[in-house]
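User: For my dataset I need records formatted as: sequence, then structure tokens, nothing else. Please produce one.
Assistant:
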Amino acid sequence: MADIFVLTQEALAGMDIELVDVERAPLGLLRVTIDRLGGVRIEDCEQASKQLSRVFEVENVDYKRLEVGSPGIDRPLKKIADFVRFANERIEIRLREPVNNRKVFAGILRVPENAVANEITPDLVFSLEMDPETKSGEVEVLNFSFDSIDRAKLDPVIDFKGKKR
């Protein structure tokens, strides 16, 4: 899968689109997830789909259907740069090893200041300010490294109530 990811990334280079994921699904479906600053538009998906169809045909990539879409509101965080980009956002992480008998945590992602200044190194220590679980209202902080994460995603709080009339 690494070579198809690299091929897809090269095909989308220069299009102001970030490749998030490439997934082979059952029945020959090839699912490509893209993102861009300001959000993905339908035109971005259409343009990427046309470009990838041509490249995959030339490179003899075997698939029956190509699906290009946005990552959605619960976008996966796969690279260190994703964590820096979404600093101060609400995320959910699953750790490889449990901490206090838990592996899944949610809260506000805090990133060290040197990471924001484009000094991204693999040994960065991120923080997760978790919602208070006790009545005292104390905020718990979990420090973690990128290597300790099994998976991570944005975890926005959605309000469906809307305006009251």
